[in-house]
Structure formats: C-alpha cells, structure tokens
Amino acid sequence: MDQTPQGYRPLLGSIEGDEEKEQCSNHHLLVPRVYGFAILFPAFVLVVSLSFNFLLAAKLLDLAKSPKNYVNTDGRSRTESQVVDQRTKYAGLTRDIAVPWTWHGPFFQHNETRIFEKWVEVDSSDGIVALTDTYVQEKGLPASQRFPWDAAKGVYLVNAFHNLHCLKVLATTLMNYRLKQPQTEDFEHALHCLDALRQDVVCDADDTPRWTGFAEMVSGPGQFRQCKDWGRLQAWARQNNACHRHIKLKEGEEAIEMYKYCPEGSPYTEKVKEYFGDQGSE
Ligand SMILES: *[C@@H]1O[C@H](CO)[C@@H](O)[C@H](O)[C@H]1NC(C)=O
C-alpha cells in the first residue's frame, strides 16, 4: 500500500509498479524520452542547489532572530519567542526563575520578635514611578497626577509594591495587636489593604496544586513554581523612580516634600536641589 500521506508524492527516486504506470499516464508531465537525461540531470542539480540556498537563507533569518534557548528546571527548554509572548506589559518580566515554597523561614519562625523585625525591614518605597505621557498612551494606561520634576510625566504606583506595602500595613496591625500596643495603622487603611490583596488573589486565580502533608499539616513546602524576578522589577522601578518616599508630613508641609528622595543617578537630583536648596538631597 501507498504509505505517503494523501496529496503528497515522492519528488524523485524509485517509483515502482503501479505507481510508475500511473505517472506515465500523466501525459502532460511526461518528458520526451530522447531528452530524458540531458534535461533531468541539470534540472535535478538546479533543484538541489535552489533547495540548499533556500535552507541557508531560512537558517540565516532564523539566526538573525537569535532564538536563545531557555531551560526550565524540569529540563524542558522553550524558545525565546515563546517566552517573549509571555512578557509582562511594562517591565517585560517572564516567569523565568524556579522558586520553591518554604514553610519555615525568616517570616515564619518560632521567635515572633524576629518575624516582626523582618516585617519592619520590608521596604516598598521604590514602587512609585514617573512615566512619560507617550509611554502611558502607548500602553493604554489611564492619565495620572503630574510628576513635580517633569510636567510630561505622570506618577504611578507599581502594583506589586502597593501589595507589599499593604502586607506590611496588615503585619503591623497584627504586630500591634500581638504586643498589646496601640494600633499605629489607620484601621480603614488596613481594611483597604485586605481588600486590595483579596482582589489580586482572585485576579491571579493561581491554579497550582500544592502537595499536602501526610504526617504534618503542611502544603507546598519544597515545591517549585516559576516566578518572575523581583530584582528585575525593582530595577525597572528604580529606573523610572519618582523620587518619592511616603513620609509623614509635619504641620504646614506640602506633599511635594515627599518627592525629594531621588535614588543615586536620578536625572532629577539637580531639580530637587534647585527647588529645596541644600536641604533637598538626602
Ligand atoms: C528572639 O529574638 C530576639 C531578637 O533577635 C532576641 O533578642 C531574643 O532573645 C529571642 N528569643 C528567644 C526565646 O530566642
């Protein structure tokens, strides 16, 4: 029986038996026998040569696109084009690092004082960025309040940093409760944070099944999942930094006081100095 898929025929080579007769009956395709070798051999050489040229061109084009291979921890590799498709819209992040869930760690240990110390260290202050109106339009973001040091930029709060800030607010609330201290966070703010985190959990709808413990009441420890690189998000936020720190304003101080904390190498350091005089840069 004919093993070739329907609609395909071998281009050259041995065609035997019935196949040959069938071909020979296609009169319009027949080459007169007298010219057989004289025409077919140069034609064969031409076809082979063109095929190689085509393959070479395809290979070069492919190389120009440089599909770097990314290897996952499970050993599977994906081409860069597949990764590019999954890049986040703003900082261009991909889920390219494998991180296991932990059970016990700095934020969950027997010594509560140490846990609280870890929460005090959590810093979300890099998360306020200033983005140009051009970029904002290109990405379809809503317009935002003006950045004091460049009127063509709006001020935005990067969501992951907002979430981190919210976690810290809730941790502080719990800490105060546990240590029987007066609450330092505004309760309405804490409720807003609880709701903000809830909305993101629902939005993410993370479908990863966590393994469950047989002897211990645990789920997930040691289990890897693909994460985005927090360091890269932080670098992006710093690159676009709005020089902002969420300081508590003193009586009579204006909100612009919050915009004088430029990171090193910021293009706005000079403007801040000009505006505030010497006490500006810190
Ligand atoms: C808990 O940690 C704090 C701060 O590091 C330390 O001073 C304290 O001695 C620790 N408590 C215990 C019971 O280990």
TrEMBL record:
<feature type="transmembrane region" description="Helical">
    <location>
        <begin position="35"/>
        <end position="58"/>
    </location>
</feature>
<dbReference type="Pfam" id="PF11807">
    <property type="entry name" value="UstYa"/>
</dbReference>
<keyword id="KW-0472">Membrane</keyword>
<keyword id="KW-0812">Transmembrane</keyword>
<protein>
    <recommendedName>
        <fullName>Cyclochlorotine biosynthesis protein O</fullName>
    </recommendedName>
</protein>
<dbReference type="InterPro" id="IPR021765">
    <property type="entry name" value="UstYa-like"/>
</dbReference>
<keyword id="KW-1133">Transmembrane helix</keyword>
<comment type="similarity">
    <text>Belongs to the ustYa family.</text>
</comment>
